[in-house]
Design a protein that fits this description.
Layout (H helix, E strand, L loop, with lengths): L2 H13 L5 H13 L2 H11 L5 H11 L4 H20 L4 H14 L5 H21 L4 H4 L3
Length: about 140
């Protein structure tokens, strides 16, 4: 399935996921069956577009609690944190991504949550270094 076909199917299934349990199960299976590379490609190509946050939402919502899906969830989480640091994204986009990741962190199992916390600490440290900020620049005068 080509990327445009995957994107179209993802949108179509996501729109009807609330209709019935069967529709949600179909949506869930579709997202679970996507490879991590397909997910990263979808996000990468649309991250700075108007529907980028919606695609992220669809992917995280569709991932089940299976171990293989949890691994994809963590890799996607890490990828998104890295992209917010490396790409020149709008503040709205960065805020949306970080908000979604904060909400998503409650769906992680303990070992994965520890990894997420470590990634967030690294993110803050790297972001502060990139902006050349120190503690005094964050405090009011």
């Amino acid at each position: 399935m080509s990327q445009p076909e995957v994107l179209l199917a993802l949108r179509k299934l996501a729109q009807k996921k609330h209709v019935s349990q069967e529709d949600f199960a179909e949506f869930n299976k579709f997202v679970d069956d996507l490879s991590y590379d397909q997910m990263e490609s979808l996000v990468s190509d649309r991250l700075d577009m108007a529907d980028g946050l919606q695609i992220i939402s669809y992917l995280f919502t569709g991932l089940s609690m299976k171990n293989t899906s949890q691994k994809k969830r963590i890799k996607l989480f890490e990828y998104l944190l890295k992209e917010t640091q490396e790409k020149d994204l709008s503040p709205r986009c960065v805020s949306g991504i970080l908000t979604w990741l904060a909400i998503e962190s409650i769906n992680c199992r303990s070992p994965h949550l520890i990894r997420v916390c470590d990634m967030c600490v690294d993110f803050v440290a790297k972001t502060a270094n990139l902006k050349e900020q120190d503690g005094t620049s964050c405090c009011p005068k």
